[in-house]
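Quick one, T. Sequence first:
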Amino acid sequence: MRKYAAVGVAVALSIAAAGCGSSGSDKAVVTLWMYPVIGDQTKSLAFWGKVEKDFEAKNPTIDLKIDQQPWEGRQEKVTTALVSKKGFDVVVLGPDQIPQYAQQGTIEPVDDVVAPAKAAYLPNSLAALTVGGKVYGVPIYQTITAPIYNKKLFAEAGVTKVPETLAELKEAAPKLAAKKVAVLDYPGNPEISLNQSFYPILWANGGSVFAPDGKSVAFNGPEGVESLQFLLDLKALGGLPANVASKGNDIEGGALASGKTAMYHAATALQVTQLGTAIGAENVGVGLPLEGRKRVAFGIPGALVLARHAENKDAAKKVATFLASPEVTAQLAKESGFYPARTDVTVPDQSEAAKEFAKSLQYAFPGDAHPKARQIMSVIGPHVQAALLGKEDAKTALDAAAKEADTLLSSGG
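Structure tokens:
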């Protein structure tokens, strides 16, 4: 892999100085910043190395350089690269990052790349990448969350039908509490993304984080108060862990794995594997998103985004088309454990649990797109925690969070 910048530059200069026409200097160079979508580093290096070779074999006039970047510091590095107009031509981003760059005019719409296979993409994936009516990302994978649960605990508590709705979850809480089991493995630690704790309940109840115009927040409306009160009611019924306000969502070594809780409502496919290791795969169930007024599951597409400063845009678009092809995305899904963002892709050797998770793809929602979505999340989390600690009631907690959030939105900070 050509990932050692200093060595690469030195070699390129020496070849150029020697006047070697076969050096590839006449090729269009496309640099792609890739992230650890494939968790195993060895597999990741091998996979993307093969992608480079396969692409260049089909496109001999293009030199593709896949530069593998760490997740840490991602936002700052991407922003710096776009402002300085160097670093990458194509980058992998999620829908929460795209609106701010689209507003800044530092990324390029890719409707023409998506158009030939538009009907094959998951509608939710494309909708998540659309800003102002234009598509700003070519999806190459899709994440999804879904409830996972301990079948044995529900059966032992006499709950013959595993809860599929918020109301059924609440109804089951006392029966499991009688067995000293909390029905919901809710992670109340503010460091856990609300996309995997409070937001799925808010969305299921028909609520949203932001008002339609994005200039104020809406999470403290009736739907939000109802959602937080739902959690407080569960707590009163013994339906949440005793340490809910500080609890994370780790499966290994956690309450779900030790049989102290029965269900986690926003788990990943990797977590179902971890739970199976702990309690036996035969005891693990995967459900559809818990329904309130509707079913909603947090899930985001990972997309290839084109920098406006890219010198070889046509070449970069060929890279995006290749990486988003059924052949590449099928293998990426197999290696990463994520899902294709297309319906015309068959994932090789997909497990039964993974197939169950895939049923929730139709309910995938990336969250309320807003340039300050992450900042607002950090405002809400501590107030939800305060309510879980009994320091604030549901309305007081969310109103206080909304006041801070609206100030943040109006300040431009």
